[in-house]
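Readers of this paper often ask what the protein records in our data store actually look like. An entry from our holdings is shown next, in its original layout:
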Amino acid sequence: MRLMAVDSTSGREGEVIAQAEQLLRELGWRTTRIPVTPGRDNLLATSDNAPLVTLSTHLDTVPPYIAPRRDAGRLHGRGACDAKGIAAAMIVAAGKLRDAGMPVALLFVVGEETTHDGAHAANRFATSSRVLINGEPTENRLALGTKGAVRLRVRTTGRAAHSAYPHLGDSATERLVALLATLPALELPHDEVLGATTVNIGSLSGGVADNVIAPWAEARLMARLVGPVDETLARFMRWADGRADIDVGETVPAVRLTSIAGFETDVVAYATDVPNLSTWGTPYLLGPGTIHVAHTDDESVGIDELEDAVGLYVKLAMAAGDRVRG
């Protein structure tokens, strides 16, 4: 609960990184900060040996901050499963691996919930790591793949006029609503493992007043990707077909992941930092908790799930380490 007691909403991770650094030093780890932006750093913890395996997750969270509490075998609060509870399980697992002689590191990044800038910064950092075990809530199953994601801003323009004389104007909101109504019919890529591309209309805005024909309107979308990014974006551009301008924001590609015998497996529909940590070794994705309560007011994780995750991280690190050693 020490890390959860700190508000680390994306962009304000400075204090939680400081708390994590103090904790890891108390446990005998060497720490290195990897600068991201002013006042924001990733945290790398290593032992005496150059790491073969790195356990990694993110310490930023979505808003709003929810203070931690524990009851009836569950840990509640922001970051319980996404992903400070995971970080705690990784710290315990890394200690066990270190004691067993495994060259292991811990990498805690910032910015995962927004622009993935922490992962991008970490990927520029020189490392000997050959295995990356990334932590997200997978219900302690080894993920076989993750969908990607792309943020889109769809904007229409019109002409302002007095609303009593709509024929003198051109309503951008009407244009946008009509365009969005055709979105369910848009054919998007489907993958036999990852499933269907999905699109969320996250927010709508536009116009200046209820008595003015709207001169502009905007929708913010997020598409969960299962196929090539360029192909999916091309389909969106053809869909807009001059009826709207589309600005493409942060993009994370879909990823197929490696499996190891002896683990339950699953496929997850969310995007992760994995594609942006490509220099840290062969990636695996596993973590306690369910994504279905992440980002909600009821975020929580079972204490037993966290305890099980410790053993699973040790088992996975040993097996993955043996695999790359040959």
Q: What stands out?
A: The longest strand covers residues 148-157. Helices lie at 14-26, 84-99, 117-123, 172-180, 229-240, 303-325.
